Amino acid sequence: MTASPLAPPAVRAKARPLGRRADARSRRWRWFAPTMLVAVLVLVVVSVLFGDNFRISPSDLLHWLTGQSGVDPLAKFGINTRLPRALLAVLVGAALAVAGALLQALTRNPLASPDIIGVSQGVVAAVLVFSVIFPNMPYAYVDWIQPICGTVGGIGTAAVIHLATRKLGSAESTQFILIGILVGGILTSLSSLALLFLGSDATRVFGFMSGSLNLKGWSDLRLAAAYLVPGLVLLVLALPRANALQLGDDVALGLGQRLGRDRLLVLGASVLLTAGAVTVVGALSFVGLMAPHMVRRMVGSDLRRLVPASALMGAVIVLVADLAARNIQPQRYLSGLGDAIGFAYLPTGLYLAVLGVPFMISLIWRRS
Amino acid sequence: MTTPHLPATETRRGTGRLLLLGAAGLGLVLVVGCWYLLKGDPDISLSELGRSLFGGHTHDNGAYLVREVRLPRLLLALIAGAALGLAGTVLQYTLKNPIADPGILGMSQAAAFVVALSVLFPGLMPRLVLPVVCILAGLATSAILVVLAKSIRDPVRLLLVGVVIASLGATLTSATIVLLPIDRAVGLGQFFGFTAGTVASASWSRIGLILPWLVVAVPAALLSGRALNLLQLGDDMAIGRGMRVTRARALLLTCACLLVAPVVAVVGPISFVALLSPHVAKVVLRTSNAHLVLPASAVVGAVVMLLADTAGRLLFFPTEIPAGIWTIVVVGPLAVVLARRSVGRTSMEAS
Amino acid sequence: MSRRALRRMATVAVVILAGTMLAACSSSDDSSGKSGGSDTSGSVSFPLTITDASGQKLTLDKKPTKIGCYWTGCDEILASLGVVPYASPNVADTTRGSLVYPDGEPTKDISKLGGEDNAESWAKAGVDLIVTRGPASPEVKAFEQVAPVLYLYAPGLDDSANLSGLDAYKKNVEIMGQVTGKVSEATAAVKGFDTFMTKLASAAPADAATTTVAPIFQTDDGSYQLIAPTSPFCVALEEYKIGKCVQSSARNASTWVINGEAFLALDPNWIPYMGGEDNSQLDWKRRSDAIWNKLTAVKEKHVYNSTSRIFCCSLRTLAPAIQEYAYHVWGPTSGVADPGKINDYAYTDDYSPLASN
């Protein structure tokens, strides 16, 4: 096998991918991507049509999409609540998955992800602290100040971790993760402190801390899309350099790249993508970890394929979790406990954790 | 048998520093503790304090408060801090990870989840059984860690398992609260104070509740110095010296569990005291010898908890600020600063 | 090829994002108000514009016939106006009796339709107005797609609005009266409360005004949690000179506890022991902690289990709570009637809390 797909663009342009493995990968990619796209589309439609309270008929959906009148008002309402939620799940899942892939490339550790590093927790803590300090801010202001706070929190956390580990020697990546875990722990505790002040809104705060798409609508979707744009821009800039970083600092240096700046770029892309997603939806965990892993065997480690593949996989994961969250009312299944259980639905993040914990433990075990 | 790798002089110097630390700690505890007992509503005078503690039959208000309210709270803070400090050392040495802490490894979250269930569903379990169930929950967490530690040599990976379990515990707790029926929502205020970690609900009966467990676990921890030193050398070296590594690890993690879970059951998940104490101890003693670090971290932990609870009780009197807030806001960042250097060393060993 | 692929990916991503935003922007998410002719009900004419507790002006085009109560206060106020809410999650709450639903239960039980925090439940129920309490929250934006949302004042729970205590509760009744077109019933309800309190105060013993009261919530960990001094219970006691809530310099946010010693120093004369909403385990005699045993009120048995709703939510439930207070504190000899099982409390025709002899 000649030049591997991990080689930086300059080298690759000269060599042509020969060898069976490279061929197999590009073949798989050719059917993988469209399949995943179709899966995402199907899941979005399913999310809209099926609900715990009422079903929407496909004809109603078609009429709404084509702008015809005469749609059943209940169906119109249902579409207007479910469709933005499903699309938000797609955006957020994709963003977090890509952030995870970038972090894994940056730290060269397959177990890194924005929620483990502490960036998600930083965003959540910033938003909660803001709610505590300004509890009675008129809602018009909260709308645009809160995401800014969240983004600042995420960037601040990443900056603190980066600065703390910068001068510690050559094995930077492991330190990065360790310090990230510690900082993440502090921020999680800080968030639960906010509950002391925000106790009357406990359900909403907990939902935000675990990640919840409950009651999110078109405006939240707009917000997320807007706040993901900077992350996307940085992603496009960072992608070519991130590949080289995966090979190791020495190789990258040898290829003439400016290491510090590139690391910052990749980190920045990851952080901005995470912040944009988490500030709207809360700290959804495990997406950034699971998605890249699930697709890496299919499409290899070349970030130019891994990133879009993870994005699609992340969207699928969050869509599935959200479908479960929206349609499973625990009270119905646990009615044996009588009226000890309320009628609420559980946040999406819980279902992701239920999926993610065994996944991650098996991952850690297998790799040893 | 002398500890491997440490020359005798260093051990002697370390012992000397340990005695100094102990004396300083004792002094601090006495001074701050006295002030703690004096202040409140009403403030009492030193002579009154003496009479309440040693004089016997004074029944006036101040004496009653000292004996029944402030003194148990002071003692609980000290005991909890010492237990957490010891647990931190045991965890960090056993798992060879400088940021091991019951909160990061998921032990406190598991115990806190049990308490959440019992607080929010009041008839669920009698008061006496609570520490037991908390311990069982913590043991479940440790069991996972022990099993996986056999095959995972990289300390970072092992820690990540703990992180994952911690987040699962936290998610389960929030799910419990989200599912709370409308009419029980008022009990939440009490629970949030608990979640932050507070010594405010101390009483002699609560101390009695956790004392049996600590009476077993604390001496066990203090005597584990040799095992901890061996484990620090690495599994292969330890096996080479005749140690049954997995069994030792299981026993040590159980001991840590017995130290942490009862404390969490009564006081709540206090963060970062367990993390910080061994690091401060190592900085002061300038040695990593577990025989010395163990008692030192107990002293440091006790002092930290005392300071945190003093601040929590007296700083904004009469508003109660849970001690946990201070540990998170002050001790957490301190822990980051101190752990940085050890983190660098660990990752170099791991890579 | 690599750069082209990159550009392609970037274009695709931007297109997706842009398309999403376009779709989001173009879809309307405001509840359409139908412009109809004016409709006169009682002395209120629709379309009606009200300023609610959040400070916003809400315009209702027609009289709402299917009111959904997100907040208990709404159920209670409608009860005093003789209206049954169309949909409410509180139907499931077994502690609500004929005090809150004297004319029958709501048609739709929101908790069975998916819970009250789920906008779809309200849509399925088909309400045309949702009534909740401040502060305004982001979740409510989703509700606005279903029906207009009206905010009521919640003194003691949310003090961001400028009205406090009894004035806030009275304003709530006035607002709901306008919304349902039952303005005269609303005025009668407010006057009835005033009559009730005046009659109650007339039965007060001489030292009633100086009685210090500290309503606390039951806990089992020995902590002490007061209610906010802006709570209408405290305001009513002071206004009619039949008692005084203890004042503490502690923060009065609803989740802060006060140091036990400070509470002991406050040493109130009477302690209403509140179970919150779950009264199944309520028994002040079972409580035993170092501070509790030393309280004068406990030693003199000046504590009572309060099964009424001292801390929330409207004039309708406040009155029986105060009657319960008067009955226990002044004793039956003062002439105050035993309120009995609070959840089935029934007002007399002349709004009198006194025992008829």
Describe it.
The complex is a heterotrimer of chains A (about 375), B (about 350) and C (about 350). Chain A is mainly α. In chain A, about 75% of the residues lie in helices and about 0% in strands. The mean pLDDT of chain B is about 85. Chain B has about 350 residues and is an all-alpha fold. Chain B has one domain: ABC transporter involved in vitamin B12 uptake, BtuC (Orthogonal Bundle), CATH 1.10.3470.10. Chain C has 2 domains: about 140 residues, Rossmann fold, CATH 3.40.50; about 140 residues, 3-Layer(aba) Sandwich (Rossmann fold). Chain C has a 3-stranded parallel β-sheet, covered by helices on one side. In chain C, helix 2 crosses helix 5, helix 5 runs antiparallel to helix 6 and helix 5 crosses helix 7. Chain C starts with a helix and ends in a 27-residue tail after the last helix. About 5% of the residues of chain C have low confidence. At the A-C interface, helix 1, helix 4, helix 8, helix 10 and helix 14 of A face helix 1 and helix 3 of C.
Highlighted features:
heterotrimer, A: 368 residues, mainly alpha, ABC transporter involved in vitamin B12 uptake, BtuC, 76% helix, 0% strand, disordered N terminus, B: 351 residues, 15 helices, 77% helix
Oligomerization: heterotrimer
Q: In CATH terms, what is the fold-level topology of chain B? A: ABC transporter involved in vitamin B12 uptake, BtuC
- Pairing-aware structural class of the strands and helices of chain B? mainly alpha
Overall 3D shape of chain B: globular
Largest sheet of chain B: none
CATH superfamily of chain A: ABC transporter involved in vitamin B12 uptake, BtuC
Secondary structure: elements and pairs:
The complex is a heterotrimer of chains A (368), B (351) and C (357).
Chain A: H1 9-14, H2 20-49, H3 58-65, H4 73-107, H5 114-117, H6 119-133, H7 139-165, H8 172-197, H9 202-210, H10 218-247, H11 249-254, H12 259-281, H13 287-299, H14 303-327, H15 330-333, H16 348-366
Helix pairs in contact in A: 2-4, 2-14, 4-10, 4-12, 4-13, 4-14, 6-7, 6-8, 6-12, 7-8, 7-12, 10-12, 13-14, 14-16
Chain B: H1 8-38, H2 46-55, H3 61-94, H4 102-105, H5 107-120, H6 129-151, H7 155-178, H8 188-196, H9 204-222, H10 225-233, H11 235-240, H12 245-267, H13 273-285, H14 290-314, H15 323-350
Helix pairs in contact in B: 1-3, 1-14, 2-3, 3-9, 3-12, 3-13, 3-14, 5-6, 5-7, 5-12, 6-7, 6-12, 9-12, 10-14, 13-14, 13-15, 14-15
Chain C: H1 2-26, E1 39-41, E2 44-46, E3 48-51, E4 57-60, E5 67-69, H2 72-81, E6 87-88, E7 108-109, H3 119-125, E8 129-133, H4 140-143, E9 149-152, H5 165-180, H6 183-202, E10 212-213, E11 216-217, H7 232-239, E12 244-245, H8 260-266, E13 271-274, H9 296-299, E14 303-306, H10 315-330
Parallel strand pairs in C: 5-8, 6-7, 8-9, 10-12, 11-13, 13-14
Antiparallel strand pairs in C: 1-2, 3-4
Helix pairs in contact in C: 2-5, 5-6, 5-7, 6-10
